[in-house]
Amino acid sequence: MPKSARPATVRHFFSPHGTLSRWHPNYEFRPGQLEMALEVEAALKDDVPLMVEAGTGTGKTLAYLVPAILSGRRIVISTGTKNLQEQLFFKDVPFLQQHFAQPLRVCYMKGRNNYACRQKIYDAETEPILSGLEEVADFQIIREWEKTTATGDRAEIRQLPEDSTLWPKIDARRDLCPGQKCPQFERCFITAMRRQAAESDIVIVNHHLFFADLASRGEEYGGILPPYAAVVFDEAHEIEDVAGQYFGVSVSNYQLQDLRRDIAALARRKGFGSPDLDALLESLDSATAVFFDQFDPQEGRRACPEVDVHGPYAALLSALLALAARLELTGEAIEELIPLHQRTLELRDALRFLIEERNPAYVYWLERRGRGCFLQATPIDVSSILAENLFSKVGAVILTSATLTVGGSFDYAKSRLGLPSARTLAVAGLFDYSKQALLYVPQDLPDPRDARFPNAAADLILRLLELSRGRAFVLFTSYGQMRQVYDRVSWKTPYPTLLQGTGPRTALLEEFKSTPNCVLFATSSFWQGVDVPGDQLSMVIIDKLPFAVPSDPVVEARIRAIRERGGNPFYEYQIPEAALALKQGFGRLIRSRSDRGVLVLLDNRITKQRYGRVFFDSLPDYRFTTDLRDVEAFWQEP
Q: What is the CATH number of the domain that holds 333?
């Protein structure tokens, strides 16, 4: 097919007999796609923010990608996952490129730890960093690959195990990077990535990289992305949490242990070790252990207690200050020590913020995961942070997702993100939900908070799986409830069952897709970003309305902040958050026009409490029933 001249307008591109219809043999005109593309085009031209809720099947990727390309400006596209990022770059952009006469200047960027560091690979040839035969074998693979790769992106190495212990030792993370003083700076994969981004019109990133860049601008080593005129956020419902993570502060025992290990390893390699440095590192190790041992050892998240600034904290801070002074002296001769000195100062400053400042705009909490203890400070409200750091500096910010409205309104998303004056557009999905999906809410189950619920729910799930012949996701709001129900169902059902936590998420998903009549029991990480089109997934069961745990320290702080300003946190925060989460969970089922299936909510509060109306008004127009006989009949329909 011959390449055409660049289309003059978005309307010409998406119209019923326009450019796209001539390019694509199976093109189907979608009014919602054209409407969204025109709104994105206008927002980019007028330099204003736009929120678009676009249902599944809208074709929203091309609806923002084409206007971005035609704008002639540098635009960053930020996605919720690396998978979506790679789909854009390796599938959607090549499809467009084959029809454009001029090369499309597009690149994608990931976080530094996705790329190899050439200097570390060369150092590993002569320095003792490899541990065990597995790392030796992995190194052979990486060394040969480094000779031919143009990008240095780990994703290219199919043979490298996902859990390789060698990769963190040779990746390009900033922690050990001397920047322009590195002998390999000109050949560095990070340097090449940044140069390509500076020459590109479209830069594709993920939310974590975008907000890491935004939060670090103004710092000495900050600024990952080149200057840009506009941003498109795909899966925009995730950005409040991601922004809070990167504009927050955290310190863990792992970070301090890694610092000690990295300094000791560099001292061995570069020959600047000494008894006094060893003593300083031992002091840091000991102070770290004593400091973190004072916190509650129980797993989970909780509010961080106030800490005596004269006890173990003072000893840890003193150890960091002494180490920083020692590194500063040595760093004058050994350039690789400069980033380690910077890390030491950053950890000192983060500790001071977490222990001494207690800024009322932040919630202070800790989390125990295995042997890790993580101290965190998270902004209670990111709306002002986003307004100051992003929206006031970039006029055209496009936010799109299948879940942005609550009860048909964008007001909740606008208030949480600090965009009261954004333009809005809700585009209906392409699917006929009233024919393709049935929503079933049983009326005779106990309240999900009742101790009798797991047994009763398990009995009903067994009957439902019998009707659907397996082929289901059973999604839970807590691990405890998931395990209870799984233990009751898995040994009674004739269908193969999978349980989250028994393997990597991607492996479980692939096994589900490839195993006929499989049933997957899972929690929050399977509520979104999972795509199983076809009849392999024919039922989604959700145990209860997904209200956030009110005792979670971040949730608790946000509830308190709303209450203190005279608001109603249940209706202003907890219900909208739960409604959006429920939409995400149910969105796993219908992924194409040929999909059919049953959505089951085992929590009948949606029909018995007044607030249930908000949930119903937020969901697509599913057929609805409270009668199990209608579920039986659904599976008899042609």
A: 1.10.275
What backbone torsions phi and psi does residue 434 show, to the nearest 5 degrees? Answer: -65, -20
Domain total in the chain? 4
Residue 534: pLDDT band with limits 50, 70, 90: confident
Give the HSE-up count for residue 114: Cα atoms under 13 Å, Cβ half-sphere. Answer: 14
Confirm if 394 and 231 have CB atoms less than 8 A apart.
yes
310 and 354, same domain (yes or no): yes
CB contact burial 413-431 (16+ within 10 A = b; e otherwise): bbebbbbeebbbbbbbbbb
Judge whether 189 lies within some domain.
Answer: no
How far, CA to CA in Å, does 476 sit from each of 110, 421, 500? 31, 36, 11
pTM: 0.89
pLDDT tens-digit series, residues 577-624: 999 999 988 888 888 888 899 999 999 999 999 999 999 999 988 999
Q: How many CB atoms lie within 10 A of CB 379?
A: 22
pLDDT band with cut points at 50, 70 and 90 for residue 135: confident
Instruction: Kindly give, in sequence order, each residue whose CB lies less than 8 Å from that of residue 265, ignoring residues fewer than 6 positions away.
Output: 129
* Pair (175, 225) in one structural domain: no
Q: Is residue 241 located within the same domain as residue 279?
A: no
Model confidence over 224-275: pLDDT tens digits? 899 999 999 999 999 999 999 999 999 999 999 989 988 988 888 778 888 9
Q: Is residue 193 part of a domain?
A: no
- What whole-number distance in Å separates Cα of residue 89 and Cα of residue 83? 10
Total residues found in the chain within this entry: 638
